[in-house]
Amino acid sequence: MGYLHSIGEYVIMLKGVFGRMTKRTVLKELIFKEIDQLIIGSLGIVAFLSFFIGGVVALQTALNLNNPLIPKTLIAFAARQSIILEFSPTFISIIMAGKVGSFITSSIGSMRVTEQIDALEVMGVNSLNYLIFPKIIAMLTYPFVIAISMFLGIFGAYASAVLGGFVGSDTFISGLQEDFQGYQLFYAFFKTFLFAIILATVPSYHGYYMTGGSLEVGKASTTSFVWTSVVIIITNYIVTQLLLG
Length: 245
Known about the structure:
Blueprint: H1 2-17, H2 24-39, H3 43-63, H4 73-113, H5 116-122, H6 127-139, H7 142-163, H8 169-177, H9 182-208, H10 214-244
Helix pairs in contact: 1-6, 2-6, 3-4, 3-7, 4-7, 4-8, 4-9, 4-10, 6-9, 9-10
Organism: Antarcticibacterium arcticum
Keywords: Membrane, Transmembrane, Transmembrane helix
Pfam families: MlaE
């Protein structure tokens, strides 16, 4: 029953988010602030992880190609498929659940502890719309982060494979183009869009409805990361089954 209660609260929260709207001028300022904190502030770690893990994927593939009958183009092909289909959309989203999700939960939770949310309600402000709606809109730019991750991941794979002497530049590029389907990008960005909504709303739920003091804020952040990751993984499975199954 506890899970059903939480799901019900989550749905009610979403309804409240799109209820009475905050003034447009205020929302505009809040949205740009959230984009700076949630999106731009995450580009560094996303770029670092994407480049080096792309390189590792290519390196591991190259080191395991012992059969001379297997073409070297498989290095680029495997890197492209791994990065576009799973690594960038899913793995980066789980990393973001720790970075962005914990930040959202702790910031809203701190406002709950210090009664700032109660003050907003007393002033006649829809606190759900004021606090969570800008985060949802800001996270709609999240697919651009994943696009950068894909590019840097493939570039890292190229640098690792070509500079490491495992494959020539032309062969790597040929492998990238081999059996490429545009539908795979649609699949990747569609689930990225869903992950963006999850990253904005699930941590917000854990922060908004938390009770207790500063110690509970830390616990709520940890719980938020766990459940956001779980929801992302389940959503990933469902979307993959529906679109690729």
